[in-house]
């Protein structure tokens, strides 16, 4: 390390510099914000910091960067409600296990109501009926991976196929959510279903699709058809029982027969949404199993 | 069917354009879907037809100016990249 003879206090600064290479990062230290791991890193950093003006410029630049990041976080929160999204990811292992079991076997579950705590819905960790986004997101990613696996066993795989499957499934999801939103608007349902709730409910079918495709890989077409039939019926029942409480009026949701065109229309809407799920499940998986 | 996100955007633009070109007095009034024919009372049940007419009218009002911009961008991109 050749550099011109420094004065005393700069030599003292060099020693902690060398020790800090392996030490844990101090978050308040602006010099470590852009860690240079190249071979000449130590020499460069010291050559930079030897000039007080560039030291000042570096501190100012890093403060600008953190300020910009704060501003971007605030603005991003306006478009994508990140704080609301966090509610949907507040899950734990027990919830995920129970929910997956409920998606495949919803026939024994009695109480489908979402519990509230002083007007705000309880986090999914504490209430199995609450919608979450963890299972749909993981299901989507797993579906793409399983699709790649299935295509690979038939020698039809190429890396672009993964991207095509992903964008195709995403487009169908967006179309389905938009169609449900449009029909909810037309029927003037006063519901507290948000768009993210609808995305969550539409994403639950990926679990059934994955089960069907894996069964098809293991047991052939017969296994695929049988398991897909089972999962389709389960998702149908699950969707009806979950959406019935949200879309229908309270009297009809309790099971009492309520006459009237409005409730009949809402029941038809719920059944249409539930019937669209098996259609999509078959549509998105039948080309994967030969 | 391999859909791409680009196909979805194209579909959305085409649908919005189709709704935007429905002329109020030449077409919609002729088939009984005009704006002034849908104002019922202030009952609590607008009904599907009234909601649909409301939707068409609001899409035409709101999306007129953004559609001009989006269509211009589309024209330029299609001219450049085919």
Structural commentary:
Chain B: InterPro entries: Yos1 (IPR013880). Chain B: Residues 1-20 form the signal peptide. The complex is a heterodimer of chains A (290) and B (82). With 290 residues, chain A is an all-alpha fold. Chain A is 68% helix and 1% strand. The longest helix of chain A has 43 residues, at 205-247. Chain A starts with 7 loop residues before the first helix and ends in a 5-residue tail after the last helix. With 82 residues, chain B is mostly helical. Chain B starts with a helix and ends with a helix. The mean pLDDT of chain B is 82.
Keywords summarizing the entry:
heterodimer; A: 290 residues; mainly alpha; B: 82 residues; endoplasmic reticulum (chain A); Yif1_fam (chain A); transmembrane (chain A); protein transport (chain A)
A few lines on this structure:
By secondary structure, chain A is mainly α.
Q: Report the helical percentage of chain A.
A: 55-70%
Alpha carbon gyration radius of chain A: 28 Å
Category by helix and strand content of chain A? mainly alpha
Regions with little confidence, pLDDT below 50 for 5+ residues of chain A: 11-28
Report Rg of chain B: 16 Å
Largest sheet of chain B: none
Q: How much beta of chain B, percentage-wise?
A: under 5%
Query: Globular, elongated, flat, extended or rod-shaped: what is the shape of chain B?
Result: elongated
Oligomer: heterodimer
* 3D shape of chain A: globular
User: What's the β-strand tally of chain A?
Assistant: 2
User: Can you give the mean pLDDT of chain B?
Assistant: 82
* H and E string of chain B: HHHH
Tell me the distance between the termini of chain B: 23 Å
**What is the count of helical runs of chain A?**
11
**Average pLDDT rating of chain A:** 80
Indicate the proportion of strand residues of chain A.
under 5%
Major β-sheet profile of chain A = 2 strands, antiparallel
How far apart are the first and last residues' alpha carbons of chain A, in Å? 66 Å
Number of strands of chain B: 0
Runs of chain B in which pLDDT lies below 50 for 5 or more consecutive residues are none
């Amino acid at each position: 390390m050749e550099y011109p003879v420094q004065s005393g206090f700069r030599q003292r600064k060099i020693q902690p510099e060398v020790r800090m290479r392996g030490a844990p990062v101090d978050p308040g230290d602006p010099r470590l914000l852009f860690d240079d791991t190249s071979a000449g890193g130590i020499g460069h950093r010291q050559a930079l910091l030897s000039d007080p003006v560039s030291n000042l410029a570096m501190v100012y630049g890093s403060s600008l960067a953190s300020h910009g990041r704060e501003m971007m976080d605030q603005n991003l929160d306006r478009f994508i409600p990140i704080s609301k999204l966090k509610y949907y990811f507040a899950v734990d292992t027990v919830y995920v296990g129970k929910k997956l079991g409920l998606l495949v076997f919803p026939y024994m579950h009695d109480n489908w109501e979402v519990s509230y705590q002083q007007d705000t819905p309880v986090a999914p960790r504490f209430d199995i009926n609450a919608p979450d986004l963890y299972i749909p997101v993981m299901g989507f990613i797993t579906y793409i991976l399983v699709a790649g696996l299935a295509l690979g066993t038939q020698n039809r795989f190429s890396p672009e196929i993964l991207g095509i499957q992903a964008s195709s499934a995403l487009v169908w999801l967006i179309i389905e959510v938009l169609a449900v939103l449009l029909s909810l608007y037309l029927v003037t349902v006063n519901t507290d279903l948000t768009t993210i709730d609808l995305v969550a409910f539409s994403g639950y079918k990926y679990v059934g699709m994955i089960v069907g495709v894996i069964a098809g890989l293991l047991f052939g077409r017969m296994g695929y058809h049988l398991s897909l039939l089972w999962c389709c019926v389960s998702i149908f029942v699950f969707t009806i029982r979950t959406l019935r409480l949200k879309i229908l009026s309270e009297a009809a949701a309790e099971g009492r027969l309520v006459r009237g065109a409005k409730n009949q229309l809402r029941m038809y809407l719920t059944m249409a949404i539930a019937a669209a799920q098996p259609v999509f499940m078959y549509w998105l998986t039948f080309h994967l199993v030969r | 069917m391999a859909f791409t996100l680009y196909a979805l955007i194209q579909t959305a633009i085409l649908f919005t354009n189709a709704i935007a070109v429905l002329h109020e007095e030449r077409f919609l009034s002729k088939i009984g879907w005009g704006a002034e024919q849908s104002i019922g009372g202030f009952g609590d049940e607008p009904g599907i037809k009234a909601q649909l007419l409301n939707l068409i009218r609001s899409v035409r009002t709101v999306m007129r100016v953004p559609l001009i911009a989006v269509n211009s961008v589309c024209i330029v991109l299609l001219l450049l990249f085919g």
